[in-house]
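> Could you send the Autoinducer 2 ABC transporter substrate-binding protein prediction when you get a chance?

Sure thing. Input:
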Amino acid sequence: MYRASDSPHRSERSARSVARFFRAFLTVATLLAAMLLTASCQSGSAKPFELVYSLEKETSATDGTPGQPAPSGGTEKPYKIAFVPKGTELNDYFAYAAEGAREAGRNLGVDVIVAGSESADADLQIASVKKLIADKVDLIAISANDPVKLVPVLRDAAGQGIKVITWDADTEPEGRAFFVNMVDPEVLGRHLLDTLALAVGEKGNYAIMTGSFSAANLNEWLKWIHVQQKEYYPDLHLVATVATDDVKEKAYEVAKRLLADYPALDGILGNSSVGPPGAAQAVREAGKSGQVKVVGLSNPNLMRPFLHDGSAQISTLWSPKKLGYLTVVLASEYLDGKLPTDGEEVEGVGNIRVKGDMVIMGEPLDFTPDNVDQYDF
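Output:
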């Protein structure tokens, strides 16, 4: 027991020990403050999200393999996730998306089933969903062919304990938990019209080739295309909007009819992946390369030859493979009880944005003759 009558040397030693303690404490506190200040400065200057345009940037220019997140779920039996495109045999866009979805499934240790009808048909898609309900999948991730018609069957799925999300093309909100979108629809629609205006010199007659008049995402983009024209390009004149049903052969035939019906046509804008290559092929064969400008949404592998020979001017897209990958990652997290959060970093994808119940993967990327060879999807 310590007593005041004990040696004064003990008090001196105690005082020195206390002093040494406080000096050490101050040193550590100073270092921690510096570290916190550095982290704060870095986070304050960061953008709200970072867009990585193509999977190829993380690995090679050919396979586009994202990093591998840790396996999800922690259950004895792997989750069964149904990945439903508008059509399983529709076009390369959905094939690349399915490839990304399967890759995410392998990385996460979940069972991904690519299901649905071959063509883009809402009734056939409804039949596919009914089969998935009977198969008792854990989650359905669907690119909807019709935003309204699919809601009842998706609500049936939810009523039987199957979680439902949408990707690429949305339904009405009551049909799903959240929507995984590629880009902000306003940004994309306005940007597409900007690319056309740039190509034709902000004046002239143009036509739009859309995939389907019932697809919610395409209609939303069309809305913003029209808004952008009205606000900024009074000398552009829309002469026709036609549908391709997302079939490449039909896109080519539709483009040929446009060229025949509107000989004074200055530009064609396609807002689904088969439109721009179909239009470019028709323009090339009509001997109007460079005379009728072609822009719109399509992947670089389809557009490369047309961009290089001048029968198309600009192609715009994102990585569909990355979209499929992101969808399955978020689906797996949702099955674990986690909803997407704004600014969340998804390995192999980047930082996502969340606006209400919509996830936004990133921003559009333009492909031109100068950069198209840098991409392989």
